[in-house]
Design a protein that fits this description.
Layout lengths: L23 E4 L6 H11 L6 E9 L4 E12 L2 E10 L2 H15 L2 E5 L17 H9 L6 H6 L1 H13 L5 E5 L5 E6 L9 E3 L29 E3 L5 E4 L4 E6 L5 E7 L1
Length: about 260
């Protein structure tokens, strides 16, 4: 019996498979030695056919990431299974750390830039995917450039998504003070990166904005999380912190954590 038992396994489909790139990403929080990563990957490869597949195995407790190449060769009486372990690249490991950081905080505030006025950033009811999604996509916690470089990025992102499906939410503040939540679902494609979470639209006073014509159902959800501040600011609550957002002249909103 190996240490495979008790490990959380998240298998990701082969939609992002590329030559010499990762095919599967999984968590093994008891793996520390290369031999343990190798055994874990070989056990995962039970249904693998002839050829080589690349397994990215992550210990999210100690931040150890290994790439295991598992090769199966047809032999008399069955397959011979060989496995080699290597470190992931510096870029891939940096991306793993950024994804872990993104999922460690349930929600992130994203303010629309002044340049989005008139193009979908001025208010919630006028929001457009082609304006809002790039603003979310460009955030450091998405680290989209690294995600686009390799299939590793998408595999790791979706592995974390499978483990913590309610994380990685952008709380978007529009230029007029409207607030709405968007789920980040795909870090590789800006046009399909996100999805408005129905019922979360609020004006700067915390009142629900009927979203029936803007991607919602017309019913409020998510409770009260937006409040008017004493100085014209907006208070936004999340599961872990509060943000205070103030208007900078006639430009964008500036938000900072006020309580933790």
């Amino acid at each position: 019996m190996t240490k495979v038992i008790g490990c959380l396994i998240v298998l990701v489909g082969l939609a992002f498979t590329q030559v010499a790139k990762a095919d599967v990403a999984a968590f093994c929080d008891t793996c520390e030695l290369n031999s343990e990563f190798k055994t874990f990957a070989k056990n995962m490869s039970y249904g693998q056919g002839e050829g080589t597949e690349i397994y990215v195995v992550m210990n999210s407790q100690k931040d150890i990431v290994r790439q295991v190449a598992v090769t199966k060769e047809l032999d008399v009486g069955g397959y011979i299974t060989l496995a080699t372990v290597s470190n992931v690249s510096t870029n891939d490991f940096s991306y793993y750390l950024s994804v872990k950081a993104a999922f460690s905080n349930p929600e992130y505030v994203v303010t629309m830039p002044p340049t989005s006025n008139g193009t979908g950033g001025e208010s919630f009811l006028s929001w457009r995917p082609e304006t809002v999604y790039p603003a979310i996509f460009a955030q450091p916690w998405v680290n989209s450039q690294l995600a686009k470089q390799t299939s590793f990025g998408a595999l790791v992102w979706f592995a974390f998504t499978g483990r913590m499906p309610d994380s990685a939410i952008a709380v978007v503040v529009f230029l007029n003070g409207d607030v709405a939540k968007f789920q980040l679902i795909n870090p590789k494609e800006v046009n399909a990166c996100c999805s408005y979470i129905a019922g979360t639209a609020r004006d700067k006073n915390g009142n629900f904005i009927n979203d029936r014509t803007a991607g919602g159902t017309g019913a409020s959800s998510g409770g009260h999380y937006v409040y008017p501040g004493p100085t014209g600011n907006i208070i936004i609550g999340s599961p872990t912190v509060y943000h205070s957002c103030v208007k900078v002249s006639n430009g964008s909103w500036y938000c900072e954590i006020i309580y933790q």
